[in-house]
Give the backbone structure.
Amino acid sequence: MEISPDSTGPAIVSRKDWLAARRALLAEEKALTHAREALAAKRRALPWVRVDAAYSFDAQDGPCSLAMLFGAQSQLIVQHFMFGRDWAEGCVSCSFWADGFNGLTAHLAARDTAFALVSTAPPATIAAYRARMGWDLRWVSDSNGSFSADFGVSFPPDAGPLPYNFGTGTFSGTEAPGISVFARRGDALFHSYSTYARGLDMLNATYQLLDLTPGGRNEADLPWTMAWLRRHDAY
């Protein structure tokens, strides 16, 4: 949707007045930055839970354990990508997030961190969709396992609203989005962090860029959030 100036928009001022307003906002932005850094420190200080389950996934090159997803790294980030066992396509909003993750794996690896997508769709279906999207992300199938269910993002069909986001909300459907983080110490694996729902917002590069613009996300008048969204090959 095109966005143009109108009588209800921001005031048009001199450069001097704009600079004064910008400096006032900068003070608030700096406060938010410091608060965000403090929150990140608390996130890193969370206790860990040992992962005792022997999770196994199906990859294009054969069976894959959770430990194998780490590769040579000691940290692992998993995107719980909504792509059900009988779906023809991956979730459009999860694809929106994955577009921003593609190309980051080398940078993450340089900081001792691996990245992978996990879905309940079969490996062949995943491979076809990944090729269509042009992604190079590591992506494995949990179609025969319990990993997605155990981490609160996969639900039985026709079960009705079920607890989601650590029980702070409910979800109706079979697949939900999320991000989980794991650490390895020797042969032991640990779960350190997960985030769901609006907690994923900070990880979407497009939204963060739109938030810098006068029009912002421009979603207020839509029938639902992201009603405008398409897969990147469907606009």
